[in-house]
Amino acid sequence: MLAAASCPDRAEMTFRPHFFSGLAVGAALLGATADARALEPEVTSETAAQFYEMRSPTGETVIARRRLMTTLGVSVYDLYDKAEDPSGPNLSFRARLRYDADYGGSAGETEASSFGSLVPGFSRGPVDLMYGYVEGRRFLKGWLGFKVGRQYVTDALGWWSFDGGEVRVTSPFFLSAELYGGFEVRGGLPLSTPRFERDGVWRGDRQGYDPTLYPSFQPSSVAPAFGAALESTGITWLHGRLSYRRVYNTGGSNLSQFPSGLTTPGIYEGSRISQERIGYAVDASLPTLGGVRAGLAYDLYMGRFNNLFASVDAYATKRLTLSADYDYFLPSFDADSIWNFFAVMPSNDVSLRSSLQVTDKTALSASAHARLFKVQTAAFDNLQYETAPNGLPAANYFPEGALDMVGGGNLAARHRWGEGELAARGALDTGRGGGRMGMDVSGRRVLETRYILSGRAGVWRWDDKLRPGRDATSFGYVAGVGYKLFPRSQALVEFEHNMNRVAGQRFRVMLWLTVAVSK
Fold first, then answer.
1. Which residues pair with residue 393 across a beta bridge?
2. Are the C-beta atoms of residues 34 and 506 closer than 8 Å to each other?
3. Distance between CA atoms of 477 and 497, rounded to whole angstroms?
4. β-bridge partners, 309
5. For the chain, how big is the Rg over CA atoms in Å?
6. Are 232 and 240 in contact (CB under 8 A)?
7. Residues near 375 by Cβ (< 8 Å), separated by ≥ 6?
8. 404: buried, middle or exposed (CB in 10 Å: 19+, 13-18, 0-12)?
9. Would you call 404 helix, strand, or coil by DSSP?
């Protein structure tokens, strides 16, 4: 059952309102000057609160969660703009902050001196700047564009975030060149998150830690980075982007992953490679035929491809679209990671999809998918080799086993009318280790353009062949009610109840608040 939300620490209670209210005041001031400068300000906010407990089938509380996530976005457009020249230079500012707290965690989990309860890297109320930059477009007669601040880069190398500057030169010859540089956004640094780091290293703020405590939790340091890209422009049916990125590790790195209790772990110092990758992606589309997308990413540090993908969409009729996808993925890690010394196996994903717009209000979709992969099975025992192919002693090498496969499919339907929607979905996934199957139905209705009613119910069956006795059938439902405050702004509360013989009864309450204000 639900318990009352835990009260946050006094420091958190006083910090949060002042922090975000200061931003709100700044946004209001920007809006106040909008008429004088012909600016176009916009303020957006999204808040989600969750209250639930993870329980065992006996009813004992295992872990409590009192989560609050809120974002505040501020945008100001036309900081520099000439009304008489709509295609001329333009300057804008955009920023978004996120506060993602979990008051279910105890204070001892964040204190470096609490050896028995410390969770390295955990924070009860972290604040991070998602992005915040000034952007200029179409300067120097349309040739020059730039961004300065915290920003995202999205291309064949994946999502990435850095603090710094980007310069783009766009030519009239269907080609643009981009250069950027700065510091990678990493966890443990002010207003930062580890979300965009390479995998394989556990980093964070070690301030106040004993050197022998959790040496595997590496100290965070600034990570200089730079990159470049060539991109096609001006061709509506074809787009390609070639990108390169290099990131450095700096500061110390603990050489021992486990404390000995006798000596202080050794530390490696100096600048070194974190990642170096190159990638290319292209997509083309014709309105009456379909589209093609493909790309690749190559890890220059490890000397191997870590991602290959391709997708084809065919417009069979005006209402029917058929698609096929292929994705090859091989895990890659930060160059400081010990996982680079172990063999990793790629996965190959193949899927077939179809989408049918039966009427203007009703749509159907279906898909089938399969994943093929190999796993290490037994020790390397070929005596003609003294070492394994990756340079490790032969006894430490485990060759790949036979090809394995998992797969499944799903069916979905959706019907919309006015301000209402009904949807249903069924899915099946199966493999040698087990499977799941089930379905859920959902609906949403807006009454009198303001009152929101929503609901979802589902039944799912799990079959776990690796852990006999853990099979279960789960039933759950969600009921929600909300109110539209004004366009693009609403409040919603949802109650969720899930039950099965393994986890028992689980309840969750979620509160949602979305606000957007613009000139």
1. 387
2. no
3. 6
4. 295, 327
5. 26
6. yes
7. 345, 400, 401, 404
8. middle
9. strand
Q: Which residue has the tokens 């280790």?
A: 433
Interval 309-358: pLDDT, tens: 999 999 999 999 999 999 999 999 999 998 888 878 899 999 999 999 99
Question: What is the pLDDT, as a whole number, of residue 266?
Answer: 72
Cβ contacts of 231 within 8 Å, gap of 6 or more: 175, 176, 177, 178, 239, 240, 241, 242
Strand partners, 160: 153
Strand partners for 513: 47, 491
For tokens 């390169």, the residue is 244
Dist. CA 18–CA 29, nearest whole Å: 16
CA nearest to 5, candidates 69, 66, 67, 70: 66
Count H helices and E strands in the chain, helices first: 3, 26
Q: Which two tokens stand for residue 106?
A: 């105890």
Q: Look up the pTM and report it.
A: 0.84
Q: Mean pLDDT score of the chain, rounded to an integer?
A: 85
pLDDT for position 24: 46
Q: Can you give the pLDDT at residue 304?
A: 92
Is residue 72 within 8 Å of 94, Cβ to Cβ?
no
Phi, psi of 377 (to 5 degrees): -125, -40
Residues 6+ apart with CB under 8 A from 312: 290, 291, 292, 323, 324, 325
**Residue 351 phi, psi (nearest 5):** -145, 150
Instruction: Give the H or E element holding residue 391.
Output: none
Phi, psi (degrees; rounded to nearest 5) at 147 = -135, 140
